[in-house]
Amino acid sequence: EEATWRYPSEEMFYNAMKRKGWKPSANDMEHVVKIHNAVNEKAWAHVMAWERRHCERCPDPKLLKFRGRPKDYSPKAQFLNFLGYKLPFDRHDWIVDRCGTEVRYVIDFYNAVPYGGNAPVAMHLDVRPALDGPSSAWDRVV
Predict the structure, then answer these.
(1) Subcellular location, in the record's words (predicted)?
(2) Which has the closest alpha carbon to 85: 126, 120, 50, 116?
């Protein structure tokens, strides 16, 4: 049985935000969910760019699971903050199934300045394999 990732409905997203202590407006959920989904698609495109290095061995990697870790700053984010940069507003760890091998990716989400001032929201995604082993370290070096 193939499991397919499904994005949350507006109601599910609204309830999740409330559980996390946010004060969302139900009227904004359509736009918030669209932005959320677009950002996740962009993050997945970044993951797939890394995964292309392994396409001969695994042509069809899949997202296995993910975990939001908004206040658990990655070592890279902490180092950049030490140098004077702002901390990310969110972090996710995504576990990708690379044809039987689990590979963790770290995604730091940063606020950014909208290009040309026309976009309502802009962000920068720093997506990379976690340094969990030699293979991931090698991927990040070459």
Answers:
(1) Mitochondrion inner membrane
(2) 126
